[in-house]
Amino acid sequence: MNTDILEKEILENHEKYLKRIALFKSYGYDVEKERKFIVEQAKPLNGKILDAGTGKGYFALALAKEGHPFVTFDISADQQQFAKLNLAYFGFANLVDFRIENAECSSFPDESFDIIFSVNLVHHLQNPYQVAEELSRILSPNGKLIIADFTETGFRIIDKIQALEGKTHETGKATLSDIESYMKTKGFYITKMKSNIQKILIVKKAFH
Length: 208
What we know:
Elements: H1 3-26, H2 31-42, E1 49-52, H3 58-64, E2 70-74, H4 77-89, E3 96-100, E4 113-119, H5 128-137, E5 139-150, H6 152-164, H7 176-185, E6 188-194, E7 198-205
Parallel strand pairs: 1-2, 1-4, 2-3, 4-5
Antiparallel strand pairs: 5-7, 6-7
Helix pairs in contact: 1-4, 2-3
């Protein structure tokens, strides 16, 4: 692609990002602050890192700002393109390995990652327990899985924004509490924390 065209595409994409961030903030949802909160709760960040479910890359940007190389995947190439362009704007493209994968059945080998993030993905899933099993499969024995989703306040804000845009917010077949219960039956130890917008599970093997 011509350099000038790419530069124009990156700038236009970033303008869309800024408008969307401003829209969220006008409803009381500071996206950048909430993503940083998740990163802080997950520290220390050591080893191989995966961001499961790139979406528009809001969390990928927060993670890139920490300076760690990582892999991020999504099933939607269109969504991920938004993330690619925005990370390029901030100069982080070289830190990130973008992949197209299905969270229910990925191509990653067993125990591939030491830290796996799944941010605001659970409520979109049609087969959430299958995804939980897959993320567990690719998590290293000493690793940790950070699963975050919206609080009731967060969901209300997202619903309002989706309605404003003429859309209906997708909701899947399991809540974060359902996933917590399921992971406990699989022998994981879980710690929890929350902000006004986000609920977080830190999932580890029970002996850690």
